[in-house]
Design a protein that fits this description.
This protein is mainly α. The protein is 82% helix and 0% strand.
Length: 133
C-alpha cells in the first residue's frame, strides 16, 4: 500500500492547491492594481478564493459532486484548518520564541496535511461515495 502522500488524490490536491494559491494571489494583485486598498482587496480575494477553492478541490483533486451541504462542510473544514494553523503558529511564537515568518513557514506542511485529511475524509468523502458506489 502506497503512503497517502504518494496517492493520486494527494498529488492532485497539491497541484490544485498551487492553482488556488495563484488564483487568490492574482485576484489580490488585480484588485490592488485597480486601486482597491490592500485590506479590502485581501478580504474580497479571500472570499472569491474560497468559492474557487471549493470547486477546484472538489472537482479536480477529489473528483466529488458538489452540493450546498458539501460547501457548508468545506467552510467548516477550512475553519478547522485555520484554527489548527493559528494554534500551531501561536505555540511556535509564544512557546518556541520563533519569529513570525519562520513560525508560519514551519506551519505550512502540517497545515497542508491536516487540510488534506479534513477535505479527503470528511468534506468530500460522502459525495465521492455517492458518485462512485
Amino acid at each position: 500500500m502506497k503512503p497517502a502522500f504518494l496517492s493520486a488524490t494527494f498529488v492532485r490536491f497539491v497541484a490544485t492547491g498551487m492553482l488556488n494559491a495563484a488564483f487568490g494571489y492574482g485576484l489580490y494583485a488585480v484588485f490592488v492594481l485597480l486601486g482597491m486598498p490592500y485590506l479590502p482587496a485581501l478580504a474580497l480575494a479571500t472570499a472569491l478564493g474560497v468559492c474557487f477553492n471549493f470547486v477546484t478541490f472538489g472537482r479536480l483533486a477529489f473528483r466529488a459532486t458538489l452540493s450546498p451541504a458539501t460547501f457548508a462542510r468545506f467552510l467548516a473544514g477550512y475553519g478547522l484548518s485555520l484554527a489548527f494553523n493559528m494554534a500551531l503558529l501561536w505555540l511556535l511564537r509564544a512557546r518556541a520564541g520563533l519569529d513570525p515568518y519562520t513560525a508560519q513557514l514551519l506551519c505550512v506542511a502540517p497545515t497542508v496535511a491536516v487540510t488534506y485529511l479534513i477535505l479527503n475524509r470528511w468534506v468530500y468523502a460522502l459525495e465521492r461515495r455517492h458518485a462512485n458506489p
